[in-house]
Amino acid sequence: MSSVNTISSQYYSLNLGTIEIKQSRQSFYRYWNRLHRFQKTLVLIALFLSVLYVLSHIEFHHKQLKNIPSNHEHQPLAKDKNWQPIPDRFLDVKDNRRPYSVFKVSMNGPTNERQQKVVEAFLHAWKSYKEHAWGEDELKPISKKFSSWFNLGLTIVDSLDTMYIMNLQDQFTEARDWIEKKLNFDVDRYNNLFELTIRILGGLLSAYHLSAETVFLEKAYEFGNRSLPAFDTKSSIPYSDLNLMRQKAKSPSWTSDSSLSEVSTLSIEYNDLTYLTGDKRFEAVINRISQTLHRLNKPDGLAPIFIDTNQGQFRGRTITLGARGDSYYEYLLKQWIQKGAKYDKSDEHFYLIQDWLESVRGIRQKLVKKTKPSGYMFVGELLSETFSPKMDHLVCFLPGNLALGYSYLRKIPDFPKDDLKDLMNMAQELTETCYQMYAQFPTGLSPEIVYFNTHEDSTKDFFVKDNDRHNLLRPETVESLYYMKKITKDKKYEEYGWKIFEAFEKYTKVENGGYSSINDVTSPERVNFRDKMESFFLAETLKYLYLLFEDEKSENLDLKHWLINTEAHLIPIPNT
Ligand code: DMJ
Q1: Is 495 tagged catalytic?
Q2: How much is the pLDDT for 55?
Q3: Per-position b or e across 387-417, b if 16+ CB within 10 A of its CB
Q4: N or C: which end of the chain has fewer CB within 10 A?
Q5: Nearest residue CA, atom 8 of ligand 1?
Q6: 195 noted as active-site residue
């Protein structure tokens, strides 16, 4: 019955349409005949120009499509059904770059015994994750349960490129299938935008760049679209918490502050999303943040670790290269590299390297001191101008970052030689200190935080407070060892890395599955498992170790072409 009704009502409305069209055609001719010749010419010119305009737009879109890497050509990215366009004020990027071609990268797999051992470690961790936590965020290796954080299968997404690099094809395919069938962003929960970006978005983009499998890009693009409301603030500083299902964002209930590292460590991932999809909104929100941070007052290039999302102003005067500050400095350099690494005052991105260099000078003058008795260089903190000799393990990313900066700046013909020497010297000395933070403890593992002694009469270079004795399987020191070996070619760094790997094997490996963070590195008797295997152990720590042990002749990853995001995910450098 109802279908008959529908058909007949369509018929009537079609008829009515015909009558209206006929009437309007007659009145159009009557009106046209009444016009003077001059008026008719004007109308025809206007018509002609409109047709030209429409045609040029078709051509523009056609060109855009042609620039999309070939594996997208027949699979246009589906827009999320809930997607809402964001306001035009974000759209300040006019050009239309598409600087990569994406193709499947082939990997050798392990070529020596050390690499083989790291792959075994990965498989030991993966097997247990699969058995007890498959599809959940992280494994609890002691209780054989799992912990939830994002509800997005975090360990799977974070591990994708590590498996790819290790040439673990079966595991990679299994993870890929899970992502295609099960990864669902309809999670009604507020999660941290920065953590989501570096791990989930970074993981998907990296997997796409390596494997060229479109599913990763589609998921990355869906994530990007759902995340844009987080950037819709007056100040341009994004909210820290994002609900992917509701596509809403907010500050945490107790503060309107975001952390410096969190708001600044989104750029590489969102820029990459623009380069891949041609959708300029992502790069545009990043430009706004970067410009805002650049314009704010930062004495000696050092920025306080809190920033008010409403006002877009720094809060407090705590300066650290550790928690909440670290990757602001890391991404100044990496974003400059992503934007072409031009050491040229007239380049619109020159401010990034200027800010990075100024901050390195600031770190050198205000935060770096040497210990007593051995003279190890370390990076302390400023708490309202008061120096504290405290250094988080997180700071150990810095030597690698300095070495990376050195590797670019040494190619600039007129870059001051003394500054170059200082950069490399700092990188070498800080790497040594970070290694000593492992070597000087009886377990061979570093605590989360150490305090350094600078008094003349000190007999020990550093000490640990009771609450800071744990080790979370963090990557920063092996990350720096990787850059140092790559850039200086000094094999010593590989030996350091091997010692650290052996210590992880001895004290953090759980007999019947997985690896666990531990409570106390200061005594082999009190190590005690904490029952948590962080996703970054698979995403970063094992990946950097594997790459550190690479034989020079069989290197897979050329730093000329790849940037490594703060969660060790690989993003290509445009036009290289
Ligand atoms: C990771 O998520 C990233 O490396 C981040 O930049 C800092 N913290 C962890 C690892 O320690």
Answers
A1: no
A2: 63
A3: eebbbbbbbbbbbbbbbbbbbbbeeeeeeee
A4: N
A5: 394
A6: yes
Q: Is 475 a pocket residue for ligand 1 (Cβ < 6 Å)?
A: yes
Token pair of 570 as six digits: 């690989």
Cβ of residue 567 lying under 6 Å from some atom of ligand 1: yes
Q: Does ligand 1 come within 6 angstroms of the Cβ of 517?
A: no
Task: Provide DSSP, 403-453.
Answer: HHHHHHHTTSTTS-HHHHHHHHHHHHHHHHHHHHHHHTSTTS---SEEEE-
Q: How do the domains of the chain map onto residue ranges?
A: 1-15+23-73, 76-105+185-316, 115-164+328-550
Catalytic residue among 195, 222, 330, 479: 195
Point out the catalytic residue in the list 213, 330, 432, 448: 448
Q: What average pLDDT does the chain have?
A: 88
pLDDT in tens, 338-369: 999 999 999 999 999 999 999 999 999 999 99
H or E element that contains 563: strand 562-564
When pLDDT is averaged across residues 65-81 and rounded to a whole number, the result is 32
Pick from 164, 150, 160: which is nearest to 193 by CA? 150
| Catalytic-residue membership of 534 | no
Cα distances from 411 to residues 127, 222, 416, 484, 545, in angstroms, run 45, 39, 11, 17, 28
Structure confidence at residue 98 as a pLDDT band (50, 70, 90): low
* 205-219 pLDDT, tens digit each: 999 999 989 899 999
Decide whether any atom of ligand 1 lies within 6 Å of the 566 Cβ.
yes
pLDDT band at 58 (very low <50, low <70, confident <90, very high): very low
Say whether domain 115-164+328-550 belongs to CATH 1.50.10.10. Answer: yes
What tens digit of pLDDT does each residue of 498-515 get? 999 999 999 999 999 999
**Does the fold of domain 115-164+328-550 match that of domain 76-105+185-316?**
yes
Has 292 been labeled as part of a binding site?
no
Ligand 1 in contact with 400 (CB < 6 A)? no
Determine whether 326 is an active site residue.
yes
Q: Is 544 in the pocket of ligand 1 (CB under 6 A)?
A: no
CATH code, residues 76-105+185-316: 1.50.10.10
Amino acid at 545: L
Q: Which residues contact 563 (CB under 8 A, 6 or more apart)?
A: 268, 334, 337, 338, 570, 571, 572, 573
- Give the DSSP per-residue string, 52-94: HHHHHHHHHHHHHHHHS-GGGTTSPPPPPTT--PPPGGG----
Q: Ligand 1 pocket test: which of 326, 474, 541 has the largest number of ligand atoms within 8 Å of its C-beta?
A: 474
Element (H, E) at 477: helix 476-488
Centre of ligand 1 to C-alpha 326, Å, is: 9
Q: Is the pLDDT of residue 91 over 50?
A: no
